UniProtKB/TrEMBL annotation:
Source taxon at top rank: Bacteria
Source organism of this protein record: Agrobacterium tumefaciens
Protein's name in the database: Uncharacterized protein
């Protein structure tokens, strides 16, 4: 999982706590102006009320950003869960030529045909990419450089004599 979204949410939460603390301090200052039956300085009261309005607006905007960051985090966790569920349907398989690929577990087929997937794409890119072909080699459908040997068919000559 990409931790940048998580770190962003933590940073926003920390910022929101600071903004809330500032707003609480401003409220305390405003309340102090009215304590003891004093008549508050209207200019100072107006300044503090404007400051409070700004702090509350910033806190509200930060809360919206936190909400968006948490939603993005939740979506990322759901994608990760879905990937892990899909990955658990496969097992590592060694071909007769020693290549390692992932094979769909028979009991997890869910009406899908038996197939193999690319281990590079699965582990590096978190992508289920089918291996295609029926000969000695099978290619990854996503990256043609990912080639896996499944068999080694000997070369057959059409004549009894050597080519040379």
């Amino acid at each position: 999982m990409d931790l940048s979204t998580f770190n962003e949410a933590l940073g926003l939460a920390s910022s929101a706590v600071g903004l809330t603390g500032k707003a609480a301090s401003t409220i305390t200052a405003i309340k102090g102006m009215f304590e003891g039956g004093k008549s508050p300085d209207s200019g100072e009261a107006s300044k503090l009320l404007n400051e409070l309005a700004n702090e509350l607006t910033l806190a509200n905007m930060t809360n919206v950003q936190i909400s968006q960051a948490l939603k993005a985090l939740n979506q990322e966790l759901l994608r990760q869960d879905e990937f892990e569920r899909e990955k658990s349907r496969y097992e590592l398989f060694q071909t007769s030529e020693g290549a390692l690929v992932f094979r769909l577990i028979d009991t997890m087929r869910n009406n899908q045909p038996a197939h193999f997937i690319c281990p590079v794409c699965l582990n590096r890119d978190r992508l289920v990419s089918f291996l295609q072909g029926n000969g000695d080699y099978r290619n990854c459908q996503t990256d043609s450089h990912h080639v896996y040997q499944f068999a080694n068919t000997p070369y057959r000559s059409n004549s009894d004599s050597s080519y040379f």
